[in-house]
Amino acid sequence: MPPKRPICRAHIHNPNGCTKGNQCTLRHVGPAGAGAKPSGNSSGNSSRPSPSTNPQGSAKGPRSKGPAQNTNARAGFQRPAGLPYGTCKDFWEKGSCSRGPFDCKYQHMSRSDNQTTNRNGIISSRSDFLTPQGLEDVAESSTDVFTALQQHMSPTEAHNHMTRFLRPDYQFCTAQDIYSFVKVLASANEKHWDLTDGQSFLIKMAEPEGTGLLRIRDVLRFEPVSPNAGRIRNTLSFQRGFVRVLMFFSSSFVTRSALDHLINSLYSLIDENFDNIVKALNECMPSLMGSHSFVEQADPTNGTLSGTEVFSTLTTVLYAYATRFKQAVASKPTFVSIVQSLEDWFTTWSNLVMKDPSPFTDSITKADIRTRKWLIDQLSRELRNLRRAVDHAEGGTFRRVSRPAFGEGIGGAKDEALLNSLQYTYDGPGAEYRLNPADGVRHDNDRVNISDIRIAPTYDEMLSTTPNYLPANVPGARHHLPSDSMERVLDIQFRLLREELTCPIKSAIYTILDELKQPRGKTTQFLELIRKRGGLYKPDRHSQESVMFSVYTGVTFKSLECHSRAGIFSTIIFDTPAGRAREGGSAQRAQYWESVGKRRLMQGGLVALLWIEGDEIKVYLGVVTSKMEDLIKSSRDSPIKLRLGVSFFDLEVDARIVQALQSPYPTPGQRYLIEAPILLESIRPFLETLQTVVPSDIPFSKYLTHPLSGRLDNIDVEPPVYTTMPNFAFKLDCLFLGNKKPLRLSPTSEVSKTAACEALKIGSRLDPSQADATIRALSSCVSLIQGPPGTGKSYTGVELLRVLIENNIGPILLIAFTNHALDHLLQNVLHASITNQIVRIGSRSAEEDIAALSLEKILSNRIQSGMRKAIGRDYRHLKEVEESLMVLMRKVTSHRINPPALRHYLETKFRNHLEELTRRPSWIHALYQDYLTWEHAQGKSKKGKKGKKGKKGDEFDFWLEGEDINFIKNAHRETSGNHSQNKNEISQNTNRFAALEVDDNASTSDDSQLSGQDDETSSEDDQSPLSFFKKHGLLEIPALPSGKRKLDELEADFKVWNMSHGERQALYYSWGEIIKRSERDDQVKQFEQLREEHATAKKILQEADNQDKVQILRNAHIIGCTTNGAAKLTALLKSVRPKVLLVEEAGQVLEAHILASLVPSIQQMILIGDPQQLRPTLANYRLSDNPRTGRIYRFDQSLMERLWTMGFPMSRLDVQRRMRPSVSNLIRQTLYPTLIDHETVQSYPDVRGMAENVFFLDHRHAEDGGGDESASKTNKYEVSMIKDLVLYFLRQGCYSGERDIIVLCAYLGQLSLIKKALSKEVITVIDERDAVQLVDHEENADPSSLISPDVTTETVNVSKRVVIRTVDNFQGKSQIKLPIVLISCLFNLIGEEGTIVILSLVRNSGMDSQRRRPSIGFLKVGQVSQLQVEAVIINIWGT
Q: Which of 701, 704, 691 is nearest to 1151 (CA)?
């Protein structure tokens, strides 16, 4: 008989039995856990376990103590009945552990687990990727569905099994140890665990200082690796070990986590061991491909591996590595070759498995041919992304740069002329692409790669006279990147958006520097503002490019601080601008800043510090960190000074501020704060995303790139990836009213699309054009829906959301340009009962039902998540770094010199001075001794005055403070006969020396008796100042030092006790400046290090906070946010992985904003808007599509408009339900020839008091001033006419309702005049943003009075309220429940409705059109806000 195998101790003593189950090589005798005892140590060790089964770790060397010994060793520990050894007491009693699922060193087992245990700790289940649910996971690019094990561990069992592997002294001895370790890793799969457990496991395995990374590294370095390892102890199986550990890198818990720093730590193992990985692939993959099977031939029963698992895992890992480590492709010579080999292997495998029957043994062959093809297509798509990523990396080996030939591109003589012109004038970025390379780069921020450009302009850039490189936004134009590449699109959008952001502040700085160059004595506006202590700088009214900006004077520095959110910032103090900001009491000043706080000194605003010192002028940019509440509080505290926090971008200015804080003297020079109206924090997220996004991560590149021809007419728009799954079809029953008809739509079938469209036109809630748009949107990965006024584009968007949610397609990312548009659409979804699983991200909503769905509200109401522990730990670390920074700042900014450093310096440079300081005259030494102890003599505690000063007890301080001089001064006062007059003062100044004098008197009592005087006379004489000096050998009181010598004389004279107070300070601070200068380099390095640590800690905390939000957002059907919110949360949205992007009012959204919102998981994009209405608003006119700049930038062209003008198919809604026919004819004849009037608009009543419902008034009254180049214009005649018309309509009695009358004007100046004219008759209310703009327009306007609606009047029969707004600020306002007359600028009225519209176009040359051809200043068809009215248009204009 063969010898018996040894008995497995783990089976006997572990209540759950042996972790290896049936694979254990030892004997399992009796029931599991039979040897477990409630107390004492286990016994019955029948034999020594083999190294591969030792539950305590490595067989080499003595075993370290396990958890069981540690548990019993705790003093006072009360073991619950039945608690097994090494088991966590909390988990045993409560079923949960306060340390988290993977931070506890003890076994996790509850009482119920002990009663009904799964002996092997294994859960049997499998989510087959060939099932419909599995295919859906494949469509989401999830590798977990491929790698899900048939037998996996629960999180509790994974914790129990992983504990031994994570001990610091653990080592893998055999391949079997690695298989046990890898099985735990493979169980961390989103098909088995929830998100919280998965992220906790990732934190445990990938923490930089942990042992999890060491174990994974050991697996990657294990050799040899073989595809036929079988049961060989020292050979690792490629299938069971090597590939399985790589599956952890590709799992969703890793690739979809928001904890970027942990993923980077994990993928650093790929970087370190890349050669080992390539070696294993090159050795094993050819053999497997040659054998036509991934099955391990030496042990076919020991698990299988499919090609889908292998290729999905390898592609995901290589792609993540290439995109996270930007130098990976360039630094790894074998990277390109392994990608090429992977493509070859995939091609071979895919060709073989597509055969029927297939010669390749693989689980995919169990599926039908259609399913196989679809799966292979998905894997091919991932491989193409990998190749594009390699192509992009550092110029890439695969890059095919091809510049267009001269004049090649979009057709047409006009376009060809433009391209030819651009060819001649092209001057690319950086020195490499300059027309004249000898000139060098434009400035230090002129870079070829946008990822190398600093977003905030550098000082060199702001002073450069050469304009920045701005690429033409024209298909076919010359560019340094390929025309059909996503890199080119990102480059164009980034550079133009950055110019839009930085142009105002650069223009302001350029204007100021130009004025400072003017001859001395010449009065300039900037100098005038300095004289008035700040104010608003208004450019010449004929200037097209200049912008208004604010100047603040008298800048000083209060402190350098650190905050967890704002980072490191400086607190500065400056003059309050003259005018209303200074006037009135604290309440009036606070009201002023509250009114203008959204435009002046706003948090996140870009500011510049102008520092002038002698002939040197420096400019430093920063961002405002103070909240509006802080600014308001500062205005309350002082009428003449304001306090503000600013975080500067340059370390140089922080160093200068530190020097200013160190110096006891006023900082030389003048400093001014310049503010341009740019909110940096609202634009920076877009720029950062465009900079860092991997081009291959952006979906739909086929449609979004610039084709060389400039046309997309013949492009074939593919259906969304998720709709291409075999047998997929949309259920459209929800679109029918009443009895729902079963209707299916297969997006891949033209027959199905046609049938579904016809069915919807007959019986659904959609009109024919809406039905057609809906079917096209559902069937296309990219779709455009144009909605002319009143055609129901928002309604169509809501119905699309209904269909998507009904078919479980989500999450859906819904973004809009404004908060109002977003809230309006979300309310429609709620009111239509489509879903209430909505999460609103971003600023607080004005609507209560939407505010309740905000992410912050949901987070505050939910049970604390498992990520809170990680957040708390990261927050504590951040606070520790902040405290270290503040300690350093206090040390750096202190005026006091470190005594050891001062002593060391004097020993080497001024030894005589040091000896004189330490060898004090006896009388000074007596005073110094009392200086150290006088508080104790007075009976005071150490926390008294001395403790508050915090610097007593040092001889340098005694000398610097002139305590000896103070004593001499008081002595002279007392002996000069002013004792009674200065009694209190002398007592106050000399009481610290009373104890000293008493002691001296006591020692000389015998001398007093010999003098023959009585005790009282003797005591008085002995305590006199002269007596004190006589006791120390001086015959008279020393003279009071009063010199004012120069520094060089003081350095030459070492008689430091003869120096005056001022001389001591001058010498001391001179020494201090030298010492601090010598320490400055080390302090700067320490500051930079702490600054980086703080930025890293802040980023880690933000990642943990994002991960905490992921679970909520993943469970939502709709995630709503503005474009700004989407850009700020790009990292979070990547982890949430939304499937659909729907953009409301897409015609108003910049292309850069949409590109920044396109996270890789988006499979369908729906743009709803109207490219023939309002365009995005720009601050920089030069970048817009206008004839003056040659139409080469077109930055105000939305993505929707660009695609439409290039011929991309766009659905148009044709049935309008808003305007009477006489009004709709205006746009039907010019813009929308297919527009149809719904029957509901045919019966509108005529306007009371008017002969015509549409009326044009042509007049010859010229506009007032301004000229063609003026930014704002007025026409007083039209103001008078509008005032009379408004009052006339109000007297009709039927137009005093909400939004019955709307007054539109094209210019802000005209709005101001109309507001003043109507304010005399009715109440006027103006939006706070417009109020600030009017303050800029009107020198002495009070924004708080403009906003206040508290005045009443009865000039007209009923009290009327006039709401005045500019176009930019009108759209998106909540309804006002009072009769109003709305006054607004023209370009903000899109999407709003009214009964009567009065339009003032202002422009009028005042000339007779019969004598001369008139000049029409404001006339354009297309991209003008449409007039959406029910009754009448009165158009006042002139020629």
A: 704
